[in-house]
Specification:
α4 runs parallel beside α6. The chain has two domains: about 110 residues, Glutaredoxin (3-Layer(aba) Sandwich); about 110 residues, Up-down Bundle (Glutathione S-transferase Yfyf (Class Pi), Chain A, domain 2). The radius of gyration is 18 Å and the shape is globular. It has a four-stranded mixed beta sheet with strand order 2-1-3-4, covered by helices on one side. By secondary structure, it is an alpha+beta fold. The structure holds glutathione (GSH). Glutathione binds next to α1.
Length: about 240
């Protein structure tokens, strides 16, 4: 059975949702990133990048065990494994799907991640960084809004991995939460097409199931000093 080493963050949620949408059998191995599980030797054997999510397929290419990290690579692999589902087959839809998946991996994920960092996790308030990443998060949301004003889904007329990979980041960015009170949130009133798209995705039963994965482990409120040290302190740079 497929094994996903994961935690309930946007990068984990996208793969939980993909697995549920594809109907693949899997089991979850929790990697508590606030407690430092990502630095354990058994996890580092799967991914040298010590970040969730990471996949182990005991029946990989050639029937051999196979490991994969980086959420987009995992999602493309899972789509192939399920016979090409959730990545459009027509050439235009196919490349548009990859285009928007890359937009998430190179833009939305890293920029929203920094926005969260300076808005909730940094030990001191850095107004320049908060402004910079607030502007960038809004700019990227505007790009999504323009696309979704023209097409129902990011890849065109088919719901795809491009929507699944992007949605969990927008979901967190648009919710008011005490954890992120320094950085605020994105008001979807300004982005009606993104609002319509989020609501359509959120209503899907597989999405609801994916969001429930490891939901017991989610802890509201501010990051603790111990979690900050593990996730952003010296530990990160001692691992080789
Ligand atoms: N580009 C990676 C990003 C993975 C990532 O940043 N994962 C975070 C959780 S959302 C993590 O594992 N953080 C642990 C740490 O920073 O030590 C992907 O898309 O898979």
């Amino acid at each position: 059975m497929l094994e996903l080493w994961s935690w309930p963050t946007p990068n984990g949620h996208k793969v939980h949702i993909a697995l549920e949408e594809l109907g693949l059998e899997y089991r979850i191995i929790p990697v508590n990133i606030g407690a430092g599980d990502q630095f354990k030797p058994e996890f580092l054997k799967i991914t040298p990048n010590h970040r969730i999510p990471a996949l182990v397929d005991p029946d990989g290419p050639g029937g051999k065990p196979f490991t994969l990290f980086e959420s987009a690579a995992i999602m493309i692999y899972l789509s192939d494994k399920a016979g090409g589902k959730l990545i459009p087959k027509d050439p235009i839809g196919h490349y548009k799907c990859l285009e928007w998946m890359m937009f998430q991996m190179g833009g939305v994920g890293p920029m929203f991640g920094q926005w969260n960092h300076f808005g909730a996790y940094a030990p001191e308030k850095v107004p320049y960084a908060i402004d910079r990443y607030t502007n960038e998060a809004k700019r990227l949301t505007r790009v999504l809004n323009t696309r979704l004003g023209e097409t129902r889904w990011l890849a065109g007329d088919e719901y795809s991995m491009a929507d699944i990979i992007t949605f969990p980041w927008l979901r967190v960015a648009t919710q008011q939460s005490s954890r992120f009170d320094e950085r605020g949130y994105i008001d979807l009133g300004e982005f009606p097409a993104v609002k319509r798209w989020c609501a359509e995705i959120e209503a899907r039963p597989a999405v609801q199931r994916g969001l429930q994965v490891l939901s017991d482990a989610q802890r509201p409120g501010k990051i603790t000093d111990e979690e900050r040290e593990i996730t952003f302190g010296k530990t990160q740079f001692q691992v080789r």
